[in-house]
Amino acid sequence: MQLKINAPFKNKDEVLPLIEAGADELYCGYLAPYWKRRFTDLEFERKGGGSNFEDLKELEKAVKLAHSRNIPVAATLNGLYVANQYPALIRVVKELSSLGIDAFIVADLGLLLWLKEKGCLQKIHISTGGTVFNSESCVFYKQFGINRVVLDRQTSFASMKELCQDNPDIEFEVFILNTLCVYIDGFCTFMHAYSFHSEQVKAVSNPETKINLGLSYNCRSSADACCLNYTIKVYDQKKKRVCPRSKIRPVFFKHL
Fold it and tell me: For residues 169 and 240, what is the distance between their CA atoms, to the nearest angstrom?
């Protein structure tokens, strides 16, 4: 079995350094101006920012550069979309297809159906938002012609091994370390945007919520909204407080 490294990028200048560092594949997002004007950047994909292009011509140059080194490029379309977003979403898909994007990373079932009905030529990767933990889920997604499943961060090594053995006809991808999220993507309702916007906003605090926006991808205590410290108060039916701990922090990567 050959393992490959898949790395995110957000501008053309990162393409060659990533390839020279050992990346076998690249992925990014495209936040179209018409989408951002109507729906903002928080609703397009799970991270709300990060490795997103906003200029289609710049993305085209980056894709051509990667292809010149025989490196495939995938595009993230891994949000969950509602009906009035679909016209703009389909426009994004068509624009990305015209650039020669090699694969789409998808979570939304409606988008999967549309891609299958239209005979999508790109490979389809199921995002962590697709929430695959067992082989039956793989069987379900295979009907859409998928090529790869990106496993949730909580998947144990034993489960990874079993999934690979039971499904030799598809590829599996896992995160090594990114934003240190401890929750299940497909069930998470956080707006994952703090860590992206913190690149522009340094150490700015909201006095009401006491949320520090000067976050870091490398700091596990504040890498994302779901990793901040929260004060938890637990009461019984008689409204008597039963939780002596004032702070609850997530436990990171117990299975590793």
Answer: 55
